[in-house]
Design brief:
The complex is a heterodimer.
Chain A (H helix, E strand, L loop, with lengths): L4 H8 L4 E8 L2 H16 L5 H21 L15 E9 L2 E11 H15 L3 H12 L13 H9 L4 E6 L4 E10 L1
Antiparallel strand pairs in A: 1-2, 2-3, 3-5, 4-5
Helix pairs in contact in A: 2-3, 3-6, 5-6
Chain B lengths: L3 E3 L7 E5 L4 E8 L4 H15 L6 E11 L1 H19 L3 E9 L3 H13 L4 E6 L2
Parallel strand pairs in B: 3-4, 4-5, 5-6
Antiparallel strand pairs in B: 1-2, 2-3
Helix pairs in contact in B: 1-2
The chains are: A alpha+beta, B alpha/beta.
């Protein structure tokens, strides 16, 4: 049976949700989400440094979704649109969680998971060194991404990347990434 | 050489490059989806400027936010400035960061460790 994104979304979209989104991601939607987030946090009692970190994590997470979600075609009514993604920001106690979900081709998942596991195994100093090495390497990916997105998420949060994968179809996995900021 | 003057948007910075004054300024937010498109004219301008730069080029970078794809483009800007510095001209980079924004200070230090031109880290008080 196919993984039910809608059910998963409804289950996640509970508690102290600051922003939630499901749909097709475009540059103008990213701008709107960022505006909304700023309005929400402008009067909230959150430390300036934390607000900036969350904003940075939002930018990278949303742009990762925009650049790297795989497009699905076919009959599936929920995810057949291009770049269909889900996205939440939640708050529990003093920890903010930025959660994203998108479809990726199974053929690409090994590479992605190895990359995340590698980043999770590094110390803070090793992450900073790796960031500088990749920054100084002139290759851009064909999608214009710098290859630095995930590293930046680890660096900004100082923690590990928490991810889950769900079998979606023969060809696709649903990939959920959770980033914690406190 | 014609100056570059670009007004900022929610995703792109305010840019002022002036060859007569020898000033290079980037301020605001740099978080576009396609950074290469935004930065290419800036890097091309510096490429032309490096053939007859001012004795002193003052660079002011005051970013509130930048995304990782901009970070590579900003490095390209610095590399052009490094070429100008290495050919015997004076170049000074003023890297501004808001008080308590350790992440932006660290980002400036990262560039400073890669690019061999003098950097000044300047804290802006609220």
């Amino acid at each position: 049976m196919e993984f039910d994104i809608k059910n998963w979304y409804n289950k996640m979209n509970r508690g102290d949700v600051l922003i939630s989104f499901k749909g097709v991601i475009t540059p103008s939607i990213i701008t709107d989400i960022l505006d909304l987030f700023e309005i929400k946090l402008v009067n909230a009692d959150v430390e300036f440094k934390i607000v900036k970190r969350i904003y940075n994590v939002l930018v990278e997470s949303l742009q990762n979704l925009y650049h790297h979600s795989d497009k699905i075609s076919g009959k599936n009514s929920f995810a057949r649109d291009n770049n269909y993604v889900v996205f939440f920001v939640t708050k529990k106690n003093n920890t903010f969680t930025v959660s994203t979900g998108n479809l990726i081709k199974k053929s690409k998942s090994d590479h992605l998971i190895k990359h995340i596991e590698h980043l999770n195994s590094l110390t803070k100093d090793e992450i900073r060194t790796l960031y500088k090495v990749i920054l100084n390497n002139q290759n851009f990916s064909e999608k214009g991404g710098g290859g630095l997105g995930m590293i930046d998420l680890v660096r900004k949060t100082g923690g590990k990347l928490d991810y889950k994968v769900y079998d979606f179809s023969d060809e696709f996995l649903f990939f959920n990434l959770n980033v914690y900021i406190s | 050489m014609d100056p570059i003057s670009i007004e900022g948007t929610p995703k792109t910075p305010t840019v002022n490059f002036d060859a007569n004054k020898g000033t290079v300024e980037v301020k605001g937010r740099s978080i576009p989806e396609n950074s290469i498109e935004f930065y290419k004219p800036l890097v091309d301008w510096l490429e032309a400027y490096q053939s007859s730069p001012k004795e002193l080029t003052q660079v002011n970078i005051q970013l509130e936010y930048f995304n990782t794809s901009s970070s590579k483009c900003i490095l390209d800007v610095f590399k052009k400035l490094e070429t100008i510095f290495k050919s015997g001209n004076e170049v000074v980079v003023n890297w501004y960061y808001e008080e308590d924004d350790e992440d932006m200070l660290e980002a400036g230090e990262d560039y400073q460790s890669i690019i061999k031109i003098p950097f000044k880290m300047i804290e802006i008080e609220e």
